[in-house]
Amino acid sequence: AEYMGGNLIVVAFGERDGIKIGQAVIAINDQAVKGINLQSGSAILDFLDDPANFPLSIKFCRPSLSVDAKLFTYSTLYALHAISASLSPERRSSGFEQIETDTFKINIHQTITGVKFVVISDLKQTGVEQLLRRLHDQYSDVLKSPWYKDESMRIKNIQFAENLQLAIEQIEKTGGLN
Fold first, then answer.
1. Nearest to 172 by CA among 137, 109, 108, 126
2. What pLDDT tens digit does each residue of the chain (178 aa) get?
3. Element holding 98 (H helix, E strand)
4. 67 exposed, middle or buried (CB, 10 Å; 0-12, 13-18, 19+)?
5. What was the pLDDT predicted at 152?
6. What is the dihedral of CA 5, 10, 12, 16, to 10 degrees?
7. Residues 177, 131: contact at Cβ < 8 Å?
8. In sequence order, what are the beta bridge partners of 4?
9. Collapsing DSSP states into helix, strand and coil, what is residue 9?
10. What are the φ/ψ torsions at residue 51 (nearest 5 degrees)?
11. Which of 59, 131, 169, 172 is 20 to 30 A from 163 via CA?
């Protein structure tokens, strides 16, 4: 494990039993983790060093990005997408649809109106194109609703969030959507 930005403990090496590199500790023995401390205030590494706390039950998840990191990531993707559209030999290209790195893939789906949906996934993940289409469909359903009135760019709709979570879980389990 290592500190990530001084505020999380993440797996740095040794993927095993479904725990992947980059995942953060979120609970130990059913105690929630807040940064590098347990909810009780004790430091995680001190808790792990104490044999009296064994056996351990440790829960992991992907760490979420800070608002600044999200803005930086989106700004970079937006610029790369615009550059790829202008450099494309294909007329009226809307830009790249996928970038593959050594550790992850970035998929972008742009609607006719210019709204971009971005999914960052594992290299082995399948069904991402289906997820992007489902995301677009769910987004359209929210905006079509006569009861949805929000001036911000953020979707604050419980049904949208639940449907998105279900689609992500289905893609992760089966590699596709029904």
1. 126
2. 444 455 788 888 888 888 888 888 889 998 888 888 898 888 988 999 999 999 999 998 887 777 888 889 889 999 999 999 999 898 888 889 999 998 889 999 998 888 889 998 888 888 899 999 998 998 888 878 777 676 655 667 788 888 888 888 888 788 777 6
3. strand 98-100
4. exposed
5. 59
6. -170
7. yes
8. 8
9. strand
10. -60, -20
11. 59
| 161 in Cβ contact with 118 (< 8 Å) | no
Per-residue pLDDT at 62: 80
Whether 177 contacts 130, CB under 8 Å: yes
CA atoms of 75 and 60, how far apart (whole Å): 29
Please tell me what DSSP assigns to residue 27: E
Q: What share of the chain is helix, strand, coil (3-state, %, to 5)?
A: 35, 25, 40
Structural contact between residues 34 and 43, judged by C-beta atoms closer than 8 angstroms = no
pLDDT at residue 151, as a whole number = 62
**Token pair belonging to 19:** 């725990």
What is the edge-to-edge ordering of all strands in the sheet holding 116-122?
A: 98-100, 104-110, 116-122
27 has which bridge partners? 32, 59
